[in-house]
Fold this protein.
Amino acid sequence: MAQPYWAQNSPAPAGLDFLASDDWTDWSHPLVAQLAAQLPGNTPTELARAAFERVKDQYPHALDCNAAALARKASEVLQLGQGYCYTKSLLLAALLRARAIPAGLVYQRLGDPASGYALHGLVALWLDRWHLLDARGDNAQVKTTFDLETPSLAYPGTGPGEGWVPQIFTQPPPEVAQALAQAADCQALTQNYPDRLL
C-alpha cells in the first residue's frame, strides 16, 4: 500500500519536539545513547535502516517470547530485551532522534467486531517527507522490511472498524500512556489494550 494520505500531507516537523528525549523516548539514557552512537551508517537513510533492523530483529515482541516483565519506555526495552509494539516504537524513535532524525509515533486500530480491537504502534520518521516503519518484529505470520516508499506493515488494517489514527504524535497519547503505566506486567497489558483514541 502507498503511504496513507494523512502521512503524505502531514507538515514537516517544526521545533524540537520530534527530536526530544523525554520520559518515553528517553534517548538521553546511557543505554539508548550508547546504542545510537554505535549504529552503522553515514547518511540518514543508512542510520534509519540500521536502527529499524536492530529494534525489529534484536528485541522480540513481548508476545512472541512469552515475556512477563513489561517495558514501558525505550530504555526498558534494552534492559529487558523485549517489548510490545508500543515500546519498540519508542525505542526506534529514540534511536532516530538521538541521531538527529525527527521521529514520531503512529497508531493503527486493528481487530474485528467479534474479538474486539487494539491499537498497534509504529514509527513515522522525517527524511524528505514522513515515512512509516513497523518494527513489531517477525514471526511465522508477520514479516516487515525497511521500505521508505511503500510501508511494510505487520498488519494491513483494512477490515471493518480497522484503520489509521491520522496523526503523528511526539509522545504516546493518553490512552496508550495510561495503559502502559497501569499494567503491572505483560499479561495485564494484553488484557487491557487501548482500542481507540478519544
